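Hi R.,

Here's the chain you asked about this morning:
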Amino acid sequence: MKKLNKTFLLPLIVLIVALTVLPVLSYPAFFLQPTNISSYGQLYANSQYVVGEATKQRIDDATIYIYAGYAYIKGEDPTSINFEHPPLGKYVLGLSYVLFENSLILNVVIYAAFLGVFASLARIFTKNNWLILGSVLFLGTTRLIYVNVGQGMLDIFSALLLLSTFRVLFSSLPSLKKYIFAGFLVGALAATKYPFPSIALPIFLLLAWAFTQKELIKGLISLPVIALTYLGSYSVYFLHHSLTDFIAFEWFRLKWWIVDRNIPPFLIFQTLFFGAFRDWRDLHIVRSAVWSFSLPVLFVSQYVSFLFTKFDMKLVAVLGYSTTQIVLYGLGAASYDRYLISLIPLWLLVFVAGIDQYNSKKNYFSLLKKRFT
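And the predicted structure, written out as tokens:
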């Protein structure tokens, strides 16, 4: 693997630091003022989660995640508040509040790590420093992504875990350490957003990669690591409950997710190509405030770019994962633009690889032409 040299590392760090300032400058009040956690508590107490669906004071996901994170970090059972999603990402929001009295500060750190891991992955597919810097700049100035940093959501953290999983699998770490570490990351991914059935795809990625590398036996070690990491995120729950209780809770949660969810398929493609989708409940149009035409262009361009690349299992893994994931989003309940956050960097990696190899071929043919004319 090509290492980041010192002369390139400095401008990359400067760029990442500059990009992490972008969400802060866009929403200074969210980051520079203390989080009024008591008001979040009042909103929660009068919300649909406590009063019921008839309440006039409904709260959104970001609000409940921030309050739940605070409650968890204070020792609340993760299944008692916002049981729908696992607690790990919300613990990060709670930790941010404890450290800084602001629930979003750690989002900036996560965002910087997200850009850094992406740059490290891009280095695997190109040695062109300008391409890497340009792709990091594109990623960091994509409104859909940097606006999410200023919200109490789980998407940037999930995207960081996914990119880190790819980075570890593509690394030169000893096999045993690689699959233990990758198992931990996939387990953390499962512990951040409701994992069933979406977690099957990262697990398949991990085991398929181990199989192609003739390391399947060692790859299987990751499975108990994934399970232990996931269960570990519910440590507070297990102080007063058994594993049997937890299995009953998971069964209850599964039924909650699948009951009365008659959502039409492929809404995510409406969001991707048009920045809006038709709500299935009252048929009004839900528009994305952060959509741009560059997203469908990038989505299509990755497949065109792939035509210019040599066969590379790493590239096939990235493209195969992102394509399968968006199809699963289409078949499932995904509709909002935030579901694209974890896919955009993967599309960008394939695009960068294609541009790099296209330029290499172009230069090669130019040299041949000069030699024979």
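Residues 260-373 form one domain.

Let me know if you need anything else.
M.
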